[in-house]
Fold this protein.
Amino acid sequence: MSTADLERRMTELDRLLNDPEVRMDADRVWTLLAEISRAARPLPART
């Protein structure tokens, strides 16, 4: 995932969690968290 993709997902997550005018979509929140988590995890070392 590119840095721009990661930033877009984090912005969307922030909006879902903090904007009172946006309806909470729990499935989307969990999906975004999983995607962000996978992107933050370092790849295993090649041997």
